Amino acid sequence: MGPSWAGCADKPFYHPSPPSGWVNDPNGVCWAPDGALHTFFQHVEGSADWGWACAWGHAVSEDCGAWAPRPVALRPTPRGPDAAGAWSGCLVLPEPGANHPPTILYTGVGLRGGEVDERSPPVPPHADLGLPAVEVQCAAVATEDGGLDAWTKLGELVIEHAPELEGAALRPAAPATALAPHTWAGFRDPFVTHARTPTEPWRLLLGSGTGGNGAVLVYESTADAPATPAWRFAGFATTGAPRPTIDLGCMWECPFMVPVPEWDDGGDARGGGERACLADESLPRPPPLGDPNAHLHQGRVLLGVSPFMREGVRPSTPTCVFVGALDARGRLPLDAPDTVGPLLLDLGDILYAATAARPVAVPPAAEAPPSLRRPVDDGRPLILAWLQEEKRDPGVDYAGCLSLPRRLWLRLGSSTLCQAPDPGVALLRVGSGVATPTLIAPAGTAVELPGAAGAATDLLITLRRDGERRARATAILLRPWLHAGPETKGVPATAAVVVDWEARTLGVDYFGETEGDSRPPVWASRLKTAGGPAPDLLAPDTASIKLRILVDHSAVEVFTGGGAALATRVYRSGRGAPTPDAAPYLLAADGGDAVAADVTAWRMQPCWQVEEGREEGGEG
Question: d(Cα 488, Cα 526) in Å, to the nearest integer?
Fold first, then answer.
């Protein structure tokens, strides 16, 4: 393990991440034939800084809670088309009856000035993006009997360059002056949405942009296997112009598309309990065996993109999504009345490059008890994302981690998109937790939350706005994260999850407070850091909100009963790591009483399971 995992105040330990090095986009998230969840991820080995030469790290989980490291799957090949980096992509597993091996499709990057394979053809002028790197689409296949641990790169590119396009085809609803023909902002991050069937071709998405707008390109292939150069440009994944509610940047990275089912979650989307049994027919079902694309045609789909921002703007916006039904040509009409979006997938400021594992039908495991539902048997799509690092202290040997696995669904009978941690995350809880039926902090006071303390916590809580002294806002102070950093202009402060009843927002803020002081926060010193309007609070008479707060050192993920999520970072500015018995979290309110109900808190254990003697492998 890297030294930063020993006593580090900020490095998460129950979010997936390698012991050291840089981490960004999750790649190739998939369900293996044995029902295990595999994820790959962009990884710069031996450095805490991003570099061109990203490799594919690899991890696997049997239950979506604990993770085990696997050998590095891909590394850049000197003088090859990915000499500068093996960038993001997807993994295509063979459907029943198919005879192709597991296949990785990914973007290979070569820098100008001789690092692009000399055997590659020159880049056509219309596909020359004028960027420092040349992006091409490459393939690797699993070696025989190697499972998903050993890979062989193919010498032939599957897609050599961006297509030639007349400018009028991208956004029919956009002004003609906004379209610059033959100009592409990127050409990367392949994601296969449709498997090859007797009636349908393979279908693949690629992230791009033109004329200052993001775009998702579609390629199709009728070949038996995905790792061939038979892919042909087939237009765009969307039609119409998106509603101008969010800045969608100039390029869309990491596109993904999955079916998103309806589900009756009983009005509480936090996902705090155990995994349901197979007998529970209320949960969405995986697609039927033999029809891998059925769900894409029978209901609504979710298209996710990560907007890369224009120069001079914050580098990225959290992943955005659209929800709607595909038209007859398999495109998503962004301007259709029943298409929802764009929506921010997350209310925070660090979640980017989300991707999904396509729901699949995996034959039941013979040794598994029939009463238990495995993660793969849940028909809700599972997503992972990159939680970006906001700042680092000198000397650390890591940067970034993956989000907790999340499930997505639509609330029954509506278009409300909900998400929650996969139930497997609850397996990392230590013991049965500390439960408190009701807790009140009278105005002007702060009350400890029993059991909620330290750097690794899972907290279920319902906040209420009760009584005559109705609070303007209610806060849960995460007092182990007391620090004096640049966000607070050097003043000692503590991070807090804040529900602002009047502004109808959910956020993670900082408050001025003296270390060790159990008095309520100084509300006038409140500094906004991350958050936004929460669907749970939109009704004017809202008087309660259900929260699940997962604190993992600097990584904080908050989920609401209404299906919203917020991921952000809180840092301790070089102070030592808090112990499990460190200063407890506090409940307080502004302008009234803080009232909490149904409070349960657990300590959490690390997710990373290291197998002794494992050697790092992967192709160079």
Answer: 9
- For 604, the 3-state DSSP assignment is strand
Instruction: Give the span between the Cα atoms of 88 and 108, in whole angstroms.
Output: 9
Tokens of 103: 């296949």
Q: Which residues of 238-273 are buried (b: 16+ CB within 10 A; e: fewer)?
A: bbbbbeeeeebbbbbbbbbbbbbbbbebeebbbbbe
CA 388 – CA 385 distance, rounded (Å): 9
Kindly list the distances between the CA atom of residue 464 and the CA atoms of 227, 452, 470, in Å, as whole numbers in the listed order. 55, 19, 9
- Distance of alpha carbon 506 from alpha carbon 533, whole angstroms: 6
Burial 520-532 (b: 16+ CB within 10 A, else e): bbebeebeebbbb
Query: Quick one: CA torsion of 433, 437, 441, 446, rounded to 10 degrees?
Result: -10
> What is the Cα 471 distance to its own chain's centre?
33
Spans of the chain, pLDDT less than 70: 1-7, 113-122, 124, 126-127, 146, 165-183, 273-292, 294-295, 297, 310-317, 361-373, 484-492, 513-519, 573-581, 610-620
Residue 389: exposed, middle, or buried by beta-carbon count in 10 A (0-12, 13-18, 19+)? buried
Angstrom CA distances, 280 to 112, 261, 371, 372, 375, stand at: 56, 16, 10, 10, 14
The CA–CA distances, whole Å, from 595 to 466, 518, 588 equal: 7, 17, 9
Closest to 52 (Cα-Cα) out of 8, 112, 140, 123: 112
Strand duo 301-308 + 320-324: pairing: antiparallel
pTM comes to 0.91
Instruction: Give which of 209, 205, 301 is closest to 252, Cα–Cα.
Output: 209
Tokens of 486: 């640049």
Strand partners, 236: 217
Q: Distance between CA atoms of 304 and 223, rounded to whole angstroms?
A: 26
- Closest-CA residue to 26 (of 221, 147, 165, 191): 191
Question: Cα–Cα distance between 617 and 79 in angstroms, integer?
Answer: 20
Helix, strand, coil percent content, the chain, rounded in steps of 5: 5, 45, 50
**Cis peptide upstream of residue 381 (ω within 30 degrees of 0):** no
The pLDDT of residue 383: 97
- CA angle 116/121/124 to nearest 5° reads 100
HSE value, Cβ hemisphere, 13 Å, CA-based, for 73: 36
Whats the size of the chain, residue-wise? Answer: 620
Return the HEC string of 433-477.
EEEEEEEEECCCCCEEEEEEECCEEEEEEEEECCCCCECCEEEEE
Q: What is the pLDDT of residues 147-191, one digit of tens each?
A: 899 999 998 999 998 887 654 344 333 332 333 444 678 899 999
Instruction: Name the amino acid, one letter, at 558.
Output: V
CA–chain centroid gap for 276, Å, is 23
Task: Kindly give the residue spans of alpha helices, DSSP state H, lying in 524-574.
Answer: none
Query: Scanning the structure block, which residue is given the tokens 């800084």?
Result: 49
CA within 13 Å, CB half, 503: 13
